[in-house]
Here is the input.
Amino acid sequence: MRYKKGLFYIENVSAKILAKKFGTPSYVYSYDKIKNNINNFKKNFKTINPLICFSVKSNSNLKILNLINKFGLGADVVSKGELIRALKAKIKPEKIVFSGVGKTIDEIKFAVSKKILLINTESENEIIEIEKIAKKNKKKINIGIRLNPDIDAKTLKKISTGKKEDKFGLTEKKFLELLKKYKSSKFINIICLSVHIGSQITSHIPYKNMLNVVKKIIQQSKYNFKYIDLGGGMGIQYGNSLNNLNYSKYNKLIKSFLKKNKSKIIFEPGRSIVGNAGYLISKITYIKQTSSKNFVILDSAMNDLLRPALYGAMHRIIPSKLSRTRVLKKHEFVGPICETTDKFLTVSDYQKLNQGDIIIICDVGAYGMVLSSNYNLRPKPVEILINKTSTKIITKRQKLNNII
Ligand SMILES: *Cc1c(COP(=O)(O)O)cnc(C)c1O
Here is the structure.
């Protein structure tokens, strides 16, 4: 945490100044953190030389995607909108993969017309539609097939994607069946096996289990996949978990996997690239004292940051100005929305807070602004990118007039 003379700084600008200049609630991103996260990711997986496709759904801000492109990453998209945005950010089509269980015909046609690297398919019906489109266009289309390895990612139940009861991917049996059926298709080129077992994974063990399943499938299929797409899911530190995924352990597992399987690895990280680079700056509207706790009522709400309400996620909340006085009473940080789930965090005690104080909700760079809405007819917050002392608005605050 970066406090100088008791004031919290993001790069070289204090949260207090940011709140004054741009108002609250505001999403603020650190250029330096994004850059460091990318460099750190690259460094740790250098020996396997992966293609790193940033998961656009975690943060689809155009200016953030410009940075992603500048630092050499590709993109993993899950809709036509995200694909258009990624292309607009000048990410090269040959570095873009398209994932998702329910791509429409229109989305597939568009992806094909843009000549992206591959489409990760998740059902036979989707493959049939792709084959039809290919036939019509007299082309061979590159696809991946997503395997559901039936692995427990040991993460929040609501963000697990690799168990057999989840809607994602295909069982081993179905995977092998489709591979056999389509590997000599004139219109489809199966170049990739893909998996993604969930998000916010903090132990390398689920990945180890996943790689074992992938290894087994490859042996059984005797098929040579040009790419193995291992998805994303790398966990970061949040308020309730100070663990993050050990990249070097994961890298070792993959290295050993690659000894027998000479494929190019694709990663699709989202959270691990932008999660800790984002802050939501908020102001305290009221403090409501009850006998059991203090409700700290903020001007940001679940419409600005949905993760706590949606998944029970915990984000650290820190003061913009430190105080030595502690209030030894339960504090519950809540939003103003008419929903009981509109709360961010409960702590046993906190430093003394006052109405009008600025606080910062941390680690909101991934699945923050992208999940925001106009619920309660609240305008969406501004987004700001900080690079040292420079502050740039990268999305304007919605105007109430424009949403009414
Ligand atoms: C969401 C998603 C990702 C990114 O997950 P993170 O946990 O943000 O790294 C990658 N691949 C697929 C297919 C996804 O659905």
Notes: Residues 31-273 form a domain with the TIM Barrel fold (CATH 3.20.20.10). Residues 205-221 form the longest helix (17 residues). The CA atoms of residues 47 and 255 lie 8 Å apart. The mean pLDDT is 96.
